[in-house]
Amino acid sequence: MAAVSLRLGDLVWGKLGRYPPWPGKIVNPPKDLKKPRGKKCFFVKFFGTEDHAWIKVEQLKPYHLHKEEMIKINKGKRFQQAVDAVEEFLRKTKGKDQASSHNSNEEKNRRNSSEERGKQSAGEEKRKASLSEGKLKKGTGEGKKRVSSVSSERGSKSPLKRAQDQSPRKRGRPPKDEKDLTIPESSTVKRVMTGTVAGFKWPPSVSEPVKDSDPHFHHFLLSQTEKPAVCYQAITKKLKVCEEETGSTSIQAADSTAVNGSITPTDKKIGFLGLGLMGSGIVSNLLKMGHTVTVWNRTAEKCDLFIQEGARLGRTPAEVVSTCDITFACVSDPKAAKDLVLGPSGVLQGIRPGKCYVDMSTVDADTVTELAQVIVSRGGRFLEAPVSGNQQLSNDGMLVILAAGDRGLYEDCSSCFQAMGKTSFFLGEVGNAAKMMLIVNMVQGSFMATIAEGLTLAQVTGQSQQTLLDILNQGQLASIFLDQKCQNILQGNFKPDFYLKYIQKDLRLAIALGDSVNHPTPMAAAANEVYKRAKALDQSDNDMSAVYRAYIH
């Protein structure tokens, strides 16, 4: 195909990874977003979504030239919505251009009329000067004739200059140097960067400050490649493009939040098993964003609230799976996860070809691999997607989702992940998400134990615990987690936001993970012992910050 010249403001079809070509517009990237090294690329904002990325030139096609071709090969509902958004944008742009053209014509007519009046005025002055000169010729000598000639020249030029200065220079086209200063680079681009179209919102223009008021969903795809990869991250809040030395690619593919209600819910039927601290918030946000959800919980009474919010009730896990397209599950530990799938009337009994199962429990890699194998053996599709966060973040739809397994299923879950979380990572093959989740919770659990240890040490040495917290909050360790957990301890409020028994379980599994690869985890092991002591003091069902009590008893 012959090379096509593209430039800022052009409508294009962009190819992003394994996604089909999608309509978009070449726009200015934010000022702090550097262009990746290598082949020439443009920054593209895609219609009908909140997606945006650097796209190589060879993966871009002019919109109008390939419109019919793309419409024939893509029939999806979201694709059609994106095309409709482009056409709506074009209609609005055309309307503005016509209005601008009409105003321009009026301005031109006013300018021509003013110039004509100027010419008439100049002609009249010149005619009067000629008559005056004739009279002078009759009444004066040759010397006075020369003086009159000079005077008539001044008389003929001056009124013309005044006529030109009065109207055309003010209403007409400015001098070249003024024109360069006052006309923006592209009025069309300016309208695009500040305007909106149906279901589509452009990011702030480069000259505007990026607002941080709304949390945004960042959706990353990590897949193994042979070449060093480029990491394309989200814009709209803070945007950076980095190059990794690893063999994985991270591509931002969505940017929406439950907070701003910009999610288009999937038309697939969603099932959800397990309405604990995390599951309850997740289901609530799925319902708020318009998903069709069927719920099941071991304690049936917990389903009542969600039935009132519009959810449907499933009598068994098998029934939920058999009646839904995608079923999520979030339970406490490896044993509960296995029982849910393999037990009587369990998930496996409802699995048939095409059914999808997403396990959001925090378990070990061996458990999730076993579950994946039995689901796939029945023709089902499997994705692991444990979540990082707590009850409050679950309620707020601000979880971090770590996924691995069936890549296509991960993409099918896009609207669900956007409803329940702020960030989603795809980490490759089954087991990777389990390992990463255990490592994250190992760090979090060890940090919590260290906080408790520091506060008790401050107390026994006569130091103010509140002052210690104030100091920490002013330093590099400052975080919401630090402040909230310290406040729990200072107030003696250990209402569970993340159960202590579950963080201890995760520490135990993380230590076992280290043992499996002969990697020492002495810090995690020490923290685990403190949590075990706290459990012995009957703190299992309190918040993880209750580990503090292991130090004061």
TrEMBL record:
Keywords: Chromosome, Nucleus. The keyword Nucleus applies. The keyword Protein biosynthesis does not apply. This is Cytokine-like nuclear factor N-PAC. Belongs to the HIBADH-related family. NP60 subfamily. The lineage of its organism: Eukaryota, Metazoa, Chordata, Craniata, Vertebrata. GO terms for cellular component: chromatin; nucleus. It is found in: Chromosome; Nucleus. Residues 92-145, 162-182 have a biased composition (Basic and acidic residues). Residues 92-189 are annotated as: Disordered. GO terms for molecular function: DNA binding; NAD binding; NADP binding; nucleosome binding. Pfam families: NAD_binding_11 (PF14833), NAD_binding_2 (PF03446), PWWP (PF00855). SUPFAM superfamilies: 6-phosphogluconate dehydrogenase C-terminal domain-like, NAD(P)-binding Rossmann-fold domains, Tudor/PWWP/MBT. It comes from the Eukaryota. Residues 8-66 form the PWWP domain. One of its GO terms (biological process) is transcription elongation-coupled chromatin remodeling. The gene is Glyr1. SMART domains: PWWP (SM00293).
